[in-house]
Amino acid sequence: MITFRPLRPDDFPTLLDWLQRPHVKQWWDDGDDTIDKVAESYATDPDNNKRFIGSLDGEPIGYFQYVLYEGDYIGADQFLCDGGGLSEGLGTTALQAFLGLIVACEAPQFICVDPHPDNARAIRCYEKCGFVHDPKRSDAAVWFMVLRCR
Length: 150
Known about the structure:
By secondary structure, the chain is of the alpha+beta class. The chain has one domain: Aminopeptidase (3-Layer(aba) Sandwich). It is 31% helix and 28% strand.
């Protein structure tokens, strides 16, 4: 069973470790390469981000977040912590569970994601979860995708 709990300050060392892993750093590199930078980035919440650690049967599997936007949109982002388990369906299962949490908590009309156009694994995962590419909002750095929730 996949569960989510709010990110806590005592998660920052683990999060720092995950952020340094090559499969994460390739697509998620905000320069959070010290514990102080992680604490600064993830302890504050200027954009009303909701941050979580996802677990499968009690074992952490990754980081998940969403942010509320105006206009009944929610932006979501996540990564799995174990690069060895990629392309085995866990990302899709975890994302489906996370989308369920978002819908239950916020009841948005739309959830959007914005992977890099070269991140084929993420794009395929989003497609399997029902996201559709929006070419009008995409560019060379962002493959904008939308999921209609209601």
